[in-house]
Amino acid sequence: MILMNDFKAEPPELQAAMLCAAKRVIESGWFVLGKEVSAFEQQWALACGLGYGVGVGNGMDAIEIALRALGVGRGDEVITTPMTAFATVLAIIRTGATPVLADIDPQTALLSLDSASRCVSANTKAVVLVHLYGQIREMDLWVAFCANYGIALIEDCAQAHLASLNDKTAGSFGIIGAYSFYPTKNLGALGDAGIIVTHDEKLAVRASQLRNYGQSVRYQHPELGLNSRLDEMQAAILLERLKWLPDFTERRRQIATAYFDGIKNPYVTCPALPESRSAHVYHLFVVTCPCRDALQAYLQQNQIQTFIHYPIPIHMQEPCRNLRHDPFGLVNSERHADTCLSLPCHPQMSDEDIATVIAAVNSFQGK
């Protein structure tokens, strides 16, 4: 079976390095908010071209803390996409703010500028822009859009590690960026982990305070925060995995290039090409097919695992059915949810695996 992710196939050198990192933490006797966390915060902020990183417990908390650090809360509205992991919207709701859902661009599955403009109101405080599947696009337009309306641009970079456009990295375009290091991400921990990145020192200080019960100095709590601290073990693991990320990212791009060149099936549409080679890191390679379920079943029969990202748009999830959305509707999001399928695209795939996937997709004959 060709898997969507194959952690057991990772290089033995990386596995050995992670074991050494774990041993280093155990022998240090310091397990929360220590040297490993500080080192990873500095290195990841540097990788993003920013001055500050704040390690947190997971990607959802990163979005919530980013919003709260900006003062977003009850009575405010935050525009985002219905084509995302549920955590994006749940983070907004947890701040007390109200998510407002704009539709996607059918060519990219990213948030549509036109749709977002129809969602702006006097209560709009921010846009959470999701770099879905690992792609960043039109960032100059999004920066101008948010500046024009006087709202904050927050980047959900959970799937876009090291994606860059015009020499700027995901997370550095807006006022603050939020990353997840869930194990399946391009840079993944061995459990939950996340980080906030920013160029604003005051925001970084407030985020650091919010992640630790709202504590400014020990036992002093000027505001209500939460318990969301990146732990030393995960930070140490991430420091080792970060060394491999450029090579792993390059392999993902090689796989994507092979798919673009090799998939030739009238029933299957490949994703839109990126603005530049560095602007997509292929956390997922997502095709669309009008008979998606049949394609998925066919690939499964051919020993190829696939997933759907995402089968149910946010506005069709039971707790979110009454959220305000684009008055023109969310037709593109609904269509994408009905037709999208993620093919295997991970660094441990062999050339033979890639050829097998391409051959199977091309031999699919529809319903």
From TrEMBL:
This is DegT/DnrJ/EryC1/StrS family aminotransferase. It holds the Pfam family DegT_DnrJ_EryC1. Gene3D superfamilies: Aspartate Aminotransferase, domain 1, Type I PLP-dependent aspartate aminotransferase-like (Major domain). It comes from the Bacteria. Keywords: Aminotransferase, Pyridoxal phosphate, Transferase. GO terms for molecular function: transaminase activity. Signal peptide: none annotated. Belongs to the DegT/DnrJ/EryC1 family. It comes from Methylomonas rosea.
